[in-house]
């Protein structure tokens, strides 16, 4: 009975040592880039431009009333502690009306889950942000 327990402990110890030294975990490589989805919803009765980091107001980001547009953005994390910031802006007639920003922790990127931000531009002139992970 004691031999079986001792053998089991040796096997468990050998397994743990091999797991540590075999390089099973990938080393961290920085900078790292991940993709994120941004949904921009025009919840008004007017045509409205909505754009994100890296874009400018143009005909390609004009959204008809009560419709959404989707963009995928690439964010680069310089280190495990960096938090890239993205912005979402709204405009009409060549004028930017409002802008909001949010940051993304790298733990979301490294989790393997898909991060999506929904930006709702409402008739009160504000952008409401909702973030979720799937």
What would the CATH topology be?
Immunoglobulin-like
Q: What's the rounded overall pLDDT mean?
A: 79
What is the helical fraction, as a range of percent? 10-25%
Q: DSSP strand (E) fraction? A: over 45%
Unreliable segments of 5+ consecutive residues: 14-27
Quaternary organization: single chain
Q: What does the largest sheet look like? A: 4 strands, mixed
The CATH architecture can be named as: Sandwich
Counting structural domains, the number is 1
Kindly name the structural category.
alpha+beta
- First-residue to last-residue Cα separation: 48 Å
CATH class descriptor: Mainly Beta
Overall 3D shape: elongated
Q: Based on DSSP secondary structure assignment, what is the total number of beta strands?
A: 8
Give the number of helices.
2
Order of helices and strands: HEEEEEEHEE
Q: If you compute it from the alpha carbons, what radius of gyration comes out, rounded to the nearest whole angstrom?
A: 23 Å
